[in-house]
Amino acid sequence: MRSAFFGNMDQGQQLPGHFALQNSKMLRVHLNGDVLARQGSMVAFQGQMDFDYEGAGGIGKFMKKALTGEGVPTMRVKGQGLLFLAHDADDIHLFYLENEGITVNGSNILAYDAHLQSDIQRVQGAGIAAGGLFNTTLTGTGWVALTTHGTPVMLDCGRAPTFVDGQSAVAWSSHLQVGVNRTFKIGALIGRGSGEAMQLAFQGQGFVLVQASEGPTVPPHTH
Question: CA nearest 10: which of 43, 144, 20, 142?
Answer without folding.
Answer: 20
